[in-house]
């Protein structure tokens, strides 16, 4: 089993013997408790699936270990600890750690850690406040609602939920084999005593029961005109609908979000939605699933002529930022998210923004803008009209190649910008290291769809001009895709006509659509090759052609 947010493996040497590091083990326990709880397997190496053959654990030493960890990991509940014998005969210790619902778990020296993806990270300052918010959200989901039992819930809502889970088929056969009452308990909609949880009332309750929730799922939809004056408003405050029905009703009522651009397409016209339906749906699902349910604030959808803004209570979950959201895998409301997956409202864990980026890139649309204010998250999606030539190019490529999700995103970005440096592409893809772009662009370069220019940090990616010709697109030429040797030839001709020019003057004459750093590198290369002379310093530096030696 691979390590993740709720699963960790530790070597035998980490817990027993002269190399034991109980402080590190305690830190791991704190991390799991501050997340969603989880399993700690002691006696299995990180890269192995089973313990070493013949490994034996002393029960007395195991008991001492748990006692020591209890004194080093504060506010951590060890639900169980069990010696397990693997099929190869080796033994390991399986420790189940409960989530710390009411307080923040710390080590005995007062340090706080949290599990972020598969890493244990220290928490302090602003992140500590976010951690407290995360805990209240987790507690809200599974907290029982007094005086509401399974029998009090709405039968039609129970039938809707159960039938939807079984028909969608997103869960395993083991889960599908459960009876209806067992299914409700499995998804934490009711507890072991048959009492409905907050999550259960949200999905299965009557309107009166949902209204009793301290913080329910309330939505406001507001439409503005060109002057940003409010022209229409719809609200969902009556608690009639479960999350799935609410989502469908909001999408049906928000007609302004379904407008389209008309784009000339040969002898006809093509309708391109302002917002791809799959993207719009995913953003609303995210607003419902990951909002903070312990604050009395509604989900706001504000539709402007040129954009839509979706604001949900609570910032991004701890460990996720606007510049890492494409890769980080964190949930604020894990049990609610599980019901959303089981009912087909959302894909698997962490796949939401991958889908959003893919759909927007395929439609030649700009990527969403995220504004994390800590207390709320606002996602802005521009309604910009896509370039027809860019759409035709993407259509042509999709008809002749089968691209992965990563490749579709890269193609969309390059088709819109024509040229991107390795640094700019890494930033757009939220990659920490530029070298990782290879897994995103590798096949595109191999297929000669994308060309590289420059080396190392100076590498730039452009769409191969021959692809435009093959697609029979009458694309207006642009200097953005000019090859380095052609650019240097243009600079030589420019300086022949305008000797002693500054870099800024040359850049202006060539056309400011060409990035200044590209011109700068070409000029430096000409100086290095001995074709240009440079006089002056910094902003006063000027360039001229060197006379050819006879």
Automatic annotation (TrEMBL):
UniProt-listed InterPro entries: RecG_C_sf, Schlafen_AlbA_2_dom, Schlafen_AlbA_2_dom_sf
Signal peptide positions (record): none
Top-level lineage group: Bacteria
Record-annotated Schlafen AlbA-2 domain positions: 4-123
GO molecular function per UniProt: ATP binding
Pfam families, A to Z: HATPase_c_4, SLFN_AlbA_2
Gene3D superfamilies: 3.30.565.60, Schlafen, AAA domain
Keyword terms, alphabetized: ATP-binding, Nucleotide-binding
Nucleotide-binding found in the keyword field: yes
Name under which the protein is recorded: ATP-binding protein
Species of the source: Hymenobacter bucti
């Amino acid at each position: 089993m691979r390590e993740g947010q709720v699963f960790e493996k530790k070597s035998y040497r980490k817990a027993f013997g002269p190399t034991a590091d109980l402080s590190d083990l305690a830190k791991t326990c704190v991390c799991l408790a501050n997340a969603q709880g989880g399993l700690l397997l002691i006696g299995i190496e990180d890269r192995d699936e089973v313990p070493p053959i013949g490994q034996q654990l002393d029960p007395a030493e195991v008991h001492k270990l748990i006692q020591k960890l209890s004194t080093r990991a504060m506010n951590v509940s060890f639900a169980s600890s069990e010696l397990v014998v693997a099929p190869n005969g080796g033994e390991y210790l399986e420790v189940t750690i409960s989530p710390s619902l009411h307080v923040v778990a710390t080590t005995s020296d007062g340090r706080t850690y949290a599990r972020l993806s598969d890493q244990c990270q220290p928490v302090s300052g602003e992140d500590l406040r976010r951690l407290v918010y995360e805990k209240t959200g987790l507690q809200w989901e599974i907290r029982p609602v007094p005086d509401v039992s399974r029998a009090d819930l709405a039968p039609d809502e129970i039938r809707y939920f159960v039938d939807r889970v079984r028909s969608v088929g997103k869960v395993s056969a083991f889960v599908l084999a459960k009876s209806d009452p067992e299914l409700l308990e499995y998804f934490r909609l009711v507890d072991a005593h048959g009492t409905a949880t907050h999550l259960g009332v949200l999905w299965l309750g009557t309107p009166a029961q949902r209204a009793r929730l301290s913080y329910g799922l309330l939505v406001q939809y507001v439409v503005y005109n060109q002057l940003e004056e409010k022209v229409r408003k719809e609200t969902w405050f009556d608690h009639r609908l479960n999350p799935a029905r609410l989502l469908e009703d909001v999408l049906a009522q928000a007609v302004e979000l379904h407008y389209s651009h008309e784009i000339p397409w040969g002898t006809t016209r093509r309708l391109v939605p302002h917002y791809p339906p799959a993207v719009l749906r995913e953003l609303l699902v995210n607003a419902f699933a990951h909002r903070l349910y312990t604050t009395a604030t509604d989900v706001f959808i504000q539709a402007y002529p040129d954009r839509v803004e979706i604001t949900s209570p609570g910032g991004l979950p701890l460990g996720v930022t606007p510049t890492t959201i494409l890769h980080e895998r964190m949930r604020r409301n894990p049990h609610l998210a599980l019901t959303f997956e089981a009912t087909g409202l959302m894909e698997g864990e962490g796949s939401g923004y991958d889908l959003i980026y893919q759909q927007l890139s395929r439609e030649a649309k700009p990527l969403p803008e995220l504004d994390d204010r800590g207390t709320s998250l606002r996602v802005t999606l521009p309604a910009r009209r896509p370039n027809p030539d860019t759409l035709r190019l993407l259509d042509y490529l999709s008809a002749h190649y089968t691209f992965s999700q990563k490749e579709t995103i890269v193609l969309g970005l390059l088709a819109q910008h024509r040229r991107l440096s390795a640094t700019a592409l890494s930033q757009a893809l939220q990659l920490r290291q530029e070298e990782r772009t290879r897994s995103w662009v590798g096949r595109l370069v191999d297929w000669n769809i994308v060309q590289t220019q420059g080396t190392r940090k100076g590498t730039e990616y452009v769409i191969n001009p021959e692809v435009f010709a093959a697609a029979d697109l009458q694309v207006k030429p642009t200097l953005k895709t000019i090859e380095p040797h052609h650019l240097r030839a243009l600079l030589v001709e420019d300086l022949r006509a305008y000797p002693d020019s500054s870099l800024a003057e040359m850049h202006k004459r060539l056309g400011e659509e060409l990035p200044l750093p590209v011109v700068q590198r070409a000029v430096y290369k000409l100086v290095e090759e001995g074709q240009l002379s440079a006089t002056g310093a910094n902003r006063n530096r000027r360039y001229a052609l060197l006379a050819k030696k006879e």
